[in-house]
Amino acid sequence: MRGGMHLIGFLINSPINHTILSWSDPADQRLEAMGSLKRWQRLAQTYERGLFDGLFFADTPGVFDRYKERSDEAVRYGVCWPPHDPVVLLSALAAATDRLGLAVTLSISANHPYQAVRSLSTLDYMSGGRVGWNIVTGHLRGEYRALGLNQLDHDQRYDRADEYMEVCRALWSGVREGAVQADRTTGVYADPAKVDIINHEGEYFRCHTVPPALPSRQGHPVLFQAGSSGRGQRFAQKHADVVFSIQPHLGGMKTFMQELGAASGSAAAPKVTFGVQPILGSSEAEARRRLDEFAARIPLEAALSRLSGSLGVDFSQVELDLPLEEQKTQASQGLMKAMSASFENRRFTLREAAVRWGLAVGMPQLIGTPEQVADQLETIWRETGCHGFNITPTTTPSSVEEFVDQVIPILQKRGVFRTAYEGETFRENLLN
Ligand SMILES: Cc1cc2nc3c(=O)[nH]c(=O)nc-3n(C[C@H](O)[C@H](O)[C@H](O)COP(=O)(O)O)c2cc1C
């Protein structure tokens, strides 16, 4: 079907996804999966059985080290530590699936554009055009400290990213139609006249070469971008196919859609997916009990460690029970704004924001029976006009299996979600 709801599985290659200490839940098998490509492959196959557009791996390739200026809490509770490399995982998932899109976050902090294109486009070519790239400029201080690099200021990171994409695009378009001949009789593999030599001399990058990979069936990877500050949105309009946003409630989602539409002017705004976390039960009461179990397990200091890292502020210095004030940050301005904005005349206190962050990084939780969860997805989709959702599971693989077996059939029955893949590439399935 065209124009239906799009669904993407939102994952992290670490002991947890977005719920702190989910690894200690009896229903969770993430610790086992961390050392097993086969388990990850089975999880990907479950998503493909549910006809998800694709998977989306978030990645912050460093540790949360802002809270009390140390990383102890992140390490002690396994709060996205260790941050295992998702790009490595992707090729195993591509081998175990046929249609599922595979998007990965690759920070441009320390990767040269040539390396990013080589790695992602090799995978895109080999998987039959199923790769996506979440372009991130690197907002986490821990990432830079690990690499021994200075972190540029917020807006300058986006300026550098603009130039980064210029190099990527030159490398992506440099193998022209008909370049590859692969002629066994003449021994000619490709016509050099149809392969561009890239000569880039810019403010941040130099690149003199021919492209390192062939165009895939979808050309180049589908491009995601998740920064939502004003500067981030300008970057998205220029480069992204899809903007992925986290807004803690429906009101914030509507505002975000309006702002993005207004900023796009007469140009088509990029498609938007919102992050959500379903919590299913056979009754609403059971689903709420499940939520309470997750919340009760989260140490406040672990949640504050993650919040401090993502928002770039040491929250050990801030009063817990006062409304969270928007603070100046060089990290994620978009997330800071979303978490400190008032909704229904009220703002989250730091304690509330930390708990939300510990459970689902500020994503709204859709709680209830499969029917109720399907209702909530449909309401957000219809009322905001978003393209679809990045869905973070609580426990893996169990909560993914529940969603695929119990919610997907309801969405299909209502005619809002596909009953077969429309196309073969990620672009064909996601961007219709
Ligand atoms: C929904 C969402 C997902 C994100 N995922 C990642 C990620 O996986 N890795 C990362 O380094 N940054 C991630 N970010 C951070 C953004 O890419 C961006 O660098 C940051 O929010 C700062 O930009 P902004 O101030 O324009 O929002 C994410 C942000 C959002 C809102």
From TrEMBL:
Pfam families: Bac_luciferase. InterPro entries: Diverse_substr_monoxygenases, Luciferase-like_dom, Luciferase-like_sf, NTA_MOA. It is an enzyme of class 1 (oxidoreductase). GO terms for molecular function: monooxygenase activity; oxidoreductase activity, acting on paired donors, with incorporation or reduction of molecular oxygen. FMN binds at D59, T105, H154, Y158, S228, S229. Keywords: Flavoprotein, FMN, Monooxygenase, Oxidoreductase. It comes from the Bacteria. Transmembrane segments: none annotated. NCBIfam families: FMN_nitrolo. Gene3D superfamilies: Luciferase-like domain. It comes from Bradyrhizobium zhengyangense. Its EC number is 1.14.-.-. The lineage of its organism: Bacteria, Pseudomonadati, Pseudomonadota, Alphaproteobacteria, Hyphomicrobiales. Residues 29-387 form the Luciferase-like domain. This is NtaA/DmoA family FMN-dependent monooxygenase. The keyword Protein transport does not apply. Belongs to the NtaA/SnaA/DszA monooxygenase family.
